[in-house]
Design a protein that fits this description.
Layout (H helix, E strand, L loop, with lengths): L5 E4 L3 E5 L5 E6 L2 E4 L4 E4 L3 H18 L6 E4 L4 E5 L2 E2 L2 E8 L2 H7 L6 E11 L8 E2 L1 H6 L5 H23 L3 E15 L2 E7 L7 E5 L9 H4 L5 H11 L10 H9 L7
Antiparallel strand pairs: 1-2, 2-3, 3-7, 4-5, 6-7, 8-12, 9-10, 9-12, 10-11, 12-13, 12-14
Helix pairs in contact: 1-6
The structure holds uridine-5'-diphosphate (UDP).
The site of uridine-5'-diphosphate has 13 residues, from strand 9, helix 2, strand 12 and strand 14.
């Protein structure tokens, strides 16, 4: 049996060489980290749920013409994606104040922002992913001005589309993080949406109760983390083929059978 080559292991995912040149296998782990790695833990079943949720969202975005790295899901925890050169900038899109913007600017969490705000953070763990401006992004050559324009336009489209998609299932899209990469198609260089879109990378609040359905439950030790991620999958119609008992849902999420759980 040949072992596949691991390219990279991150906090929540492992990347393996894909079956064809230019492809990568993205493996979703149950591991979770927060506060720049200070807090570590596992969320049982998270990898399976994020793999499915991200597949669905990337598929929907492909459907409206947003180019993404996603090719197809391979199994419960893995998906095949296009290999890209990651642009070292996290794009944060915010609709409602929460998390770091609330702290930084003293805006109460839950305050709707006057308009959607896009922020950039330089991807660098040692520096704690510092907030940077568009000027930094282009001056240091992390992205060229036309690439940055493309990234901004795509981010706005993604926000409009996903805000509607989540509102349709009773969830407010508070904020989220996007990553983009460069991909060569013959001689043409394209910007693709990469990484994942899941409750790990979005703040999702129940529209009625305000309950948090995202990684803040882990960051803030609120409990019910797997259940919250399951709820998101369920509302998006991704658990509908599964008999709706808590046991079954957990079994599907963890990938274990009943004897093992
Ligand atoms: N986010 C992320 N990865 C990061 C930083 C942020 O996925 O490394 C997401 C986070 O889940 C939230 C949004 O980006 O949905 C905004 O995060 P914020 O800047 O408020 O930082 P945090 O409060 O997570 O430290």
């Amino acid at each position: 049996m040949t072992r596949r080559r691991q390219i990279y292991e991150g906090k929540a995912k492992i990347l393996y060489e894909g079956p064809e040149p230019g492809t990568i296998i993205q493996h979703f782990k149950d591991d979770a980290t927060a506060f720049n790695n200070e807090k570590k833990g596992t969320i049982e079943g998270k990898g399976v749920l994020n793999n499915r949720i991200s597949e669905y969202i990337m598929g929907q975005l492909n459907g409206i013409g947003v180019p993404t790295h996603f090719i197809r899901r391979l199994n419960m925890r893995e998906q095949l994606v296009r290999q890209v050169e990651i642009i070292p900038v996290e794009v944060i899109v915010r609709n409602i104040a929460a998390g770091s913007i609330s702290k930084r600017l003293g805006i109460e969490e839950g305050t709707p922002l006057p308009r959607s705000i896009i922020e950039f953070c330089y991807k660098n763990d040692e520096l704690g992913d510092p907030l940077v401006s568009e000027e930094h992004v282009t001056a240091f050559g992390w992205a060229s001005p036309p690439e940055l324009d493309e990234i901004l336009q795509l981010s706005i489209r993604i926000n409009d589309f996903l805000s509607g998609l989540f509102m349709g299932v009773g969830i407010k899209l508070v904020d989220f993080k996007l990553e983009f990469g460069r991909h060569w198609e013959n001689d043409l260089l394209r910007i693709l949406l990469a990484d994942e879109i899941s409750p790990d990378s979005c703040r999702l609040w129940d529209a009625k109760s305000g309950d948090k359905l995202d990684k803040d439950r882990f960051r803030r030790d609120m409990g019910g983390v797997t259940e919250a991620y399951q709820e998101v999958a369920k509302r998006l119609g991704l658990l509908k083929d599964i008999q709706d008992t808590p046991d079954n849902v957990v079994n599907i999420a963890t990938g274990k059978n009943k004897d093992e759980t």
